[in-house]
Amino acid sequence: MAQLQAAEVARLFPTGIALFLEGGLVMGLGLALIYLTLGVKAGASSFLSSILTYITPLQAERHSREWRLAMVIGMVLGAWLCGMWRGGFFQTAVAPWRLLLGGLLVGYGSRLSSGCTSGHGLMGMASFSRASLQAVLVFMGVAILTAQLVWHLGVRP
Amino acid sequence: MIRLLWAALGGVLFGFGLALSGMARPEVVLSFLQLRDFGLLLVMASSLLVLMLVFWLAPRLRRTSLLGEPFSMEVKPFHRGLIPGAVIFGVGWGLSGVCPGAGLASLGLGNWPMLLAIAAMLLGAWIHGVRVEGRRSLR
Q: What ipTM was reported for this prediction?
């Protein structure tokens, strides 16, 4: 019985479960720390709007741009520290056209939807927002369909 | 200044976790979206557990945050753009395996090609901003 369960787990999680759980925990602690100190629920996609107020006349999220910029600088530093500690430096093999087109849609869609994988997926869902739950179900479903389609058209990875 | 330091420190943990969990790698995100490795759901679950606890508990234990600011009680509301935006986001996420937080953090792992996606994300957010804020914002 235990062996059967282990085999099931191994099939769903071929690279194990520990790093996913530990990494997610640290992510949650970081976002929780920002809530405990600044009192804000900080999703990542609002950073896009706030950084634009430095370089364009746009005004959305201007009031939060200083701490959001500090947060993102911290995020880059944190990922670097993790790389220094246990390796994992890489350059993605995803083709440039996918990064460009995907990035454009992600940027526009996250602002239209007012949230992304962290804003709706973590902040919104942890606040029991029904709207965020709907957004997550929709974007996850659409992303799975899109990724399947792209994979079956022979585009790798 | 002290606010910026805390925001940066929170960012360090968030970015560290994104790197540790593998979410900073588009390949790992794609392996979930291609239904080959469901680890992304574990990342969300363990983050959510921490955040649900803190969002629920902190405002009940303290009137203000540790820096004396009001706790946000924001619960994202439904609006007209929510579902169309989620569909567009989903197509982009499924195509590239990139989302804003993970993309930004991955620069710390030397993933320079991600600069293309970040520039494109900024362009996408800019197009949305101009549509919302109007022509005044083009000057």
A: 0.96
